[in-house]
Design a protein that fits this description.
The protein is an all-alpha fold and 380 residues long. The protein has 17 helices and no strands.
């Protein structure tokens, strides 16, 4: 590492990230040695908590930008998005990697995480989700590999990869579409426990649509932060295109939300209950407010204004995942005399996982050709 790289590496932000990673790593070891009961506030009524709701469901939704931008570049040949191709795919890969880490620590027997690969249960939605995670994480690793091959001058590997990249991306788009929706399908097994505000046979489609909105917001936010911290200049038209896509996606999501709210009973959202209030917060913060802002031309054309909308959308979708996983079951759980609030260790581990993802992204930005143009699709 030369002196210039050392100066860029050893920043206060990096030290803070490393501290959070160390603390999170300590919590992870404690959980592995002493179990979920000692490290979390989970119980038989609330077996899924912060790690699953935020780290897994939220992390996978954040990664949706990878398949959207990869499809735009490699399948539709939308050339203007090529400058953000590699960062978007890397962000998706890191999102899935963080989800895998959280899932490893969240299941009762962590070292059995590999079982779905060898022990197929084709009638289980949980098995479907597990296989999607394995296959798409592998696909994202392949899509991200050109950076490593370029870094170490592996020209033969790059040439071979360029010939199959379109097929790899197409497979990845199919997998990600199925996986985003299958995460919603998991909750179809608990109709008696969930509030009608969220439960619907169309929940898989709602997960997919909201993930697309979040993916577009994450890609735009990541590009702006890369501009700020790494000097990676991005054409303003890229931000405008992402904002237009977000506007269309949020409009579709709002129509669907209104339809299902009317069908389930509007009064349940305005009865003053915790689930009702969380539902209204999710809709107002993550859909209605961003939509109103995006109807203003400034919020579709100016990067800082778009960033504000992106943050609202990301927050709204994360709230949705927390709501579906936790607050949608609050009524049932209260009737059972149970409650749940994450322990300090759950928060610390979540911060550690997020810090780990940011740290890996920074390392890639410093030492790999992250901001180089993606490999040209074969024949183009």
């Amino acid at each position: 590492m030369n002196s210039a790289q050392e100066n860029r590496f050893w920043t206060p932000n990096t030290i803070l990230l490393l501290f959070a990673i160390l603390v999170g790593g300590g919590v992870a070891l404690y959980r592995l040695f002493y179990g979920l009961g000692a490290a979390t506030n989970l119980n038989d009524t609330y077996p899924w908590g912060l790690w699953l709701a935020f780290d897994v469901l939220g992390g996978v939704a954040m990664a949706a930008g990878g398949f959207i931008i990869a499809a735009a570049i490699y399948l539709f040949n939308w050339r203007k998005y090529r400058p953000i191709g590699r960062p978007a795919i890397l962000t998706a890969f890191l999102g899935y990697l963080m989800a895998v880490i959280a899932l490893f620590l969240d299941i009762g027997h962590p070292f059995r995480l590999w079982h779905p690969i060898a022990m197929w249960q084709i009638h289980s939605i949980m098995w479907v989700v597990a296989i999607h995670v394995v296959l798409y994480t592998t696909t994202l690793a392949i899509e991200s590999s050109p950076m490593l091959f370029e870094r170490f001058n592996k020209t033969r590997a790059l040439t071979a990869l360029s010939k199959i990249m379109v097929g790899v991306v197409a497979f990845g788009v199919m997998l990600s579409t199925l996986h985003q929706s299958s995460l919603g399908a998991v909750f179809l097994i608990a109709p008696a426990r969930m509030s009608p505000l969220w439960f619907s046979e169309f929940l898989p489609y709602m997960f997919l649509i909201s993930a697309i909105a979040m993916g577009l917001a994450m890609v735009g936010t990541e590009a702006m932060l890369s501009e700020r911290f790494f000097g990676h200049r991005v054409d303003i038209e890229i931000y405008r295109g992402l904002a237009r896509g977000m506007l269309i996606t949020l409009a579709i999501l709002l129509v669907a939300k209104i339809f299902f709210l009317i069908r389930s009973g509007v009064g349940s959202a305005f009865n003053g209950s915790l689930p009702g209030n969380m539902y209204l917060l999710e809709i107002a913060l993550g859909i209605i407010l961003p939509l109103l802002l995006l109807t203003n031309r400034r919020f579709r054309t100016e990067p800082r204004a778009i960033l504000g909308v992106n943050i609202l959308v990301i927050t709204g979708v994360l709230l949705n995942r927390l709501n579906v996983c936790l607050f949608a079951m609050q009524g049932y759980s209260t009737a059972q005399g149970a409650g749940y609030f994450p322990s300090l260790m759950e928060f610390l581990l979540t911060l550690g996982i997020i810090a780990f993802g940011i740290f890996l992204y920074k390392m890639a930005a410093l030492y790999l050709p992250l901001f180089a143009k993606p490999i040209e699709p074969s024949g183009r």
